[in-house]
């Protein structure tokens, strides 16, 4: 399966999102605005919004935060690793505490 890597995240193609939708989703998950994404991809902000609208429709959500959360839940995007080194109190990565920071 092909992937797109950006912003410390991995997006999986072949799971319902077009490549450009996935690029926009990864940027949103990294906290970028439509203007910032458009500048980075060399397209108009309206094009970014159109891609995100298409993806929110596909995933059945309304807000960007819901989009990111649903994409993580479905395995469409995953984190490549923690930006922080594991310390002595490091917890197992499989342990979840119900908190999502998007």
Automatic annotation (TrEMBL):
CDD domains: LuxR_C_like. It comes from the Bacteria. InterPro entries: Sig_transdc_resp-reg_C-effctor (IPR016032), Tscrpt_reg_LuxR_C (IPR000792), WH-like_DNA-bd_sf (IPR036388). The keyword Cytoplasm does not apply. Residues 12-75 form the HTH luxR-type domain. Residues 83-102 are annotated as: Disordered. One of its GO terms (biological process) is regulation of DNA-templated transcription. One of its GO terms (molecular function) is DNA binding. Residues 90-102 have a biased composition (Basic and acidic residues). PANTHER family: DNA-BINDING TRANSCRIPTIONAL ACTIVATOR DEVR_DOSR (PTHR44688:SF16). This is Regulatory protein, luxR family.
